[in-house]
């Protein structure tokens, strides 16, 4: 029985990676004005980008569709066979169809052309040879060039699909930049999971959920401050003045260090130990930004303040970690 323990496939893997990487790099040398024409057509599309392809090209088309849809380009995938049996009804004259076929002769894709032309949608072909049937019958053809498949039989689409995917990603990123699509736009399409939390959740959301806002004044005794820290479970408390504005922060670390130096500090006041220059964060900052500050400053807690520098809560690094940030 064959086993990778007895046969070294390292060179095979390296060869595939090199062939596919070199093919992508080779494409950068052939990109010309046609790419700008394609982007202009896509940017001025009043409908959606409809991507179609059969077999492996269809799988690549689905990925390109997903990337475009999530980065500000309304798009959908049309399976050629389903299109021939009614799904062409989703295509309108305002759309731009991107048809993917390495050979440019895929029967199912070519069969869509008469209907697409009659509907009035524009067509961009992604093919190996722009002189192929699909390339000639499209409004614009983008060539991936003649590539050697990494498959040793030269049969399974490998290099060609990788290059096509890279070209699709390049189109999507160029459209993203042209539209000035930013993090807030991206968040709109990714509201769920850790990605959505990183892009949407503010510090205010975090402290609202925890409802923890330990506050003491400079005259509060260290003992009482320690009791409050323990009750809140944050290991720190904000220090405020008589108008409730933030003056500084006192942590359990400050207290431990003081106890090491002197046994009689519990009856001292907060004023003797607190840090008047704490690292803070505003309530409307993103929670992901709070985590970044905590990691960079090597602290565990941040007082959260409003526009008047009034503490509204305190965020602990563990709260952010538990949220999956």
What would you note in describing this structure?
- Helix content is 45%, strand content 15%.
- The longest helix is centred in the middle third of the chain and has 20 residues, at 159-178.
- The protein has helices at residues 10-28, 33-43, 56-70, 80-83, 107-110, 113-119, 133-137, 159-178, 183-189, 193-200, 203-210, 222-232, 252-261, 287-297, 317-322; strands spanning 49-53, 75-78, 96-100, 122-127, 140-143, 215-216, 236-240, 246-251, 281-282, 301-305, 311-316.
- It is elongated and about 90 Å long.
- The protein is built from 15 helices and 11 strands.
- Helix 1 packs across helix 8, helix 2 crosses helix 8 and helix 3 (56-70) packs parallel to helix 8.
- Helix 3 (56-70) links the parallel strand 1 (49-53) and strand 2.
- The protein is of the alpha/beta class and 325 residues long.
- It has a 5-stranded parallel beta sheet with strand order 2-1-3-4-5.
- The protein folds into 2 domains: 10-181, Rossmann fold; 199-322, CBS-domain, CATH 3.10.580.
Radius of gyration: 30 Å
**CATH homologous superfamily name of the largest domain?**
Glucose-6-phosphate isomerase like protein, domain 1
- Spatial arrangement of strands, main beta sheet: 2-1-3-4-5
Shape: elongated
Q: Could you tell me how far the N terminus lies from the C terminus, measured between alpha carbons in angstroms?
A: 45 Å
Topology:
Blueprint: H1 10-28, H2 33-43, E1 49-53, H3 56-70, E2 75-78, H4 80-83, E3 96-100, H5 107-110, H6 113-119, E4 122-127, H7 133-137, E5 140-143, H8 159-178, H9 183-189, H10 193-200, H11 203-210, E6 215-216, H12 222-232, E7 236-240, E8 246-251, H13 252-261, E9 281-282, H14 287-297, E10 301-305, E11 311-316, H15 317-322
Parallel strand pairs: 1-2, 1-3, 3-4, 4-5, 6-7, 9-10
Antiparallel strand pairs: 7-8, 10-11
Helix pairs in contact: 1-8, 2-8, 3-8, 9-10
């Amino acid at each position: 029985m064959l086993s990778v323990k007895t046969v070294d496939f390292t060179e095979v893997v390296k060869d595939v990676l090199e062939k596919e990487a070199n093919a992508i790099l080779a494409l950068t040398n052939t990109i010309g004005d046609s790419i700008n024409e394609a982007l202009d057509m896509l940017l001025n599309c009043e409908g959606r980008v409809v991507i179609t392809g059969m077999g492996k090209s269809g799988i690549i088309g689905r990925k390109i569709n997903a990337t475009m849809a999530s980065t500000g380009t309304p798009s959908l995938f049309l399976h050629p066979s389903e299109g021939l049996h009614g799904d062409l009804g989703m295509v309108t004259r305002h759309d731009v169809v991107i048809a993917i076929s390495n050979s440019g002769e895929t029967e199912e894709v070519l069969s869509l052309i008469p209907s697409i032309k009659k509907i009035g949608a524009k067509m961009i072909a992604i093919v190996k040879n722009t002189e192929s049937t699909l390339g000639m019958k499209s409004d614009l053809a983008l060539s991936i060039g003649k590539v050697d498949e990494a498959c040793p039989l030269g049969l399974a689409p490998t290099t060609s699909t990788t290059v096509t995917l890279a070209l699709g990603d390049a189109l999507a990123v160029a459209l993203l930049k042209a539209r000035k699509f930013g993090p807030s736009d991206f968040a709109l399409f990714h509201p769920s999971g850790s990605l959505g939390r990183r892009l949407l959740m503010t510090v205010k959301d975090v402290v609202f959920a925890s409802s923890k806002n330990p506050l003491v004044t400079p005259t509060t005794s260290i003992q009482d401050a320690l009791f409050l820290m323990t009750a809140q479970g944050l290991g720190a408390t904000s220090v405020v003045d008589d108008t409730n504005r933030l003056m500084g922060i006192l942590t359990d670390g400050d207290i431990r260090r003081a106890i090491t130096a002197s046994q009689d500090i519990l009856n001292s006041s907060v004023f003797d130990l607190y840090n008047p220059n704490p690292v803070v964060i505003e309530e409307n900052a993103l929670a992901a930004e709070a985590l970044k500050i905590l990691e960079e400053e090597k602290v565990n807690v941040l007082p959260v303040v409003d526009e008047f520098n009034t503490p509204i809560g305190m965020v602990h690094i563990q709260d952010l970690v538990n949220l999956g940030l």
